[in-house]
Amino acid sequence: MHRWKRNLALPVTIAAIALGFLISLQAQTQKNVSAVEQISAERMTQMKSVMSNSQAQNIKLQGDHRVLLEQLDAMRKQVGTDPQLLAQLKQLQILEGTQAVEGAGIQISIDDRSKKVFFPIRTDDIATMINTLKFAGAEAISINGQRIIGQTAVVLSGNSAIFVNGVPINRAEGIPYELSAIGNQDTLFDYFSKLEAPNLKLDNKTVSIARKTVRIPSYKGAYTFKNAVPLVVPKL
Question: Whole domain around residue 104: which residue ranges?
């Protein structure tokens, strides 16, 4: 009898220990599950808070965007009707050459096709004449229909083709070079007739200068800036 009890005690003890371990493991697992659920609940609350804040921020940004669009539209309408702003815009367009202009000035015709001419008109001759007119205060200049602006380049292509603003200006048969300049007629006439015309005539080129109202076309190219950017001056 005692032997039977002793033989049964060991399995019972092992079973009790195993059962205790399982109960402890189950309790720990339940505790971990509860912790995970709590963390998930906290994260869900945080996510809901973030989402709520994002929605509120989005609504505010939409409102700000609508206000800015209304302000921009109002400014555009103001520019379109404000005489002072329109006048300033026209002045800037004239200055950059994108506005065709008309006014008192001089018109110069130069013919270098005579057999007595030693040297035909060259690119440096054209550049010098343009600089002389600028020095005389010309407000707008063109040569053979090409408006002269700050970026204008006068280059030679091949043996005889002269390009201004990337466009060939070589005259058709029977048509000489023609420069037009708007400004003080007397000053323009005086400068060109004394500084440029004598050298041209010395080479047997035919030169005629007339005071008249001239029309100068707008610059047809596009302004491109790859390196220059607006200078931002820090506020003091």
Answer: 92-216
Give the number of domains in the chain.
Answer: 2
Question: Could you say which residues of the chain have pLDDT below 50?
Answer: 2-10
Residues 210 and 96 in one domain: yes
Q: What is the pLDDT of residues 118-173, one digit of tens each?
A: 888 999 999 999 999 999 999 999 999 999 998 888 998 877 789 999 888 876 66
What pLDDT score was predicted for residue 54? 56
**Residue 126 domain-assigned?**
yes
Contacts of 133 (CB under 8 A, 6+ apart): 141, 179, 181, 183, 188, 191, 192
Give SS3 for 223. coil
Please report, for residues 22, 29, 35, the alpha-carbon distance to residue 25 in angstroms, rounded to integers and kept in the order given: 5, 6, 15
∠ CA 66-69-70 to the nearest 5 degrees? Answer: 90
Asked whether residue 206 is domain-assigned, the answer is: yes
Predicted pLDDT of residue 141: 96
CA distance 163 to 12: 111
Q: Say if residues 126 and 154 touch (Cβ distance below 8 Å).
A: yes
Q: What is the pTM of this model?
A: 0.63
Strand ranges for 171-229 from DSSP E? 177-182, 206-216
Please identify, among 55, 81, 107, the residue that sits at the C-terminal boundary of a domain: 81
Out of 81, 105, 123, a domain closes at: 81
Q: In the block, which residue shows the tokens 């994108």?
A: 98
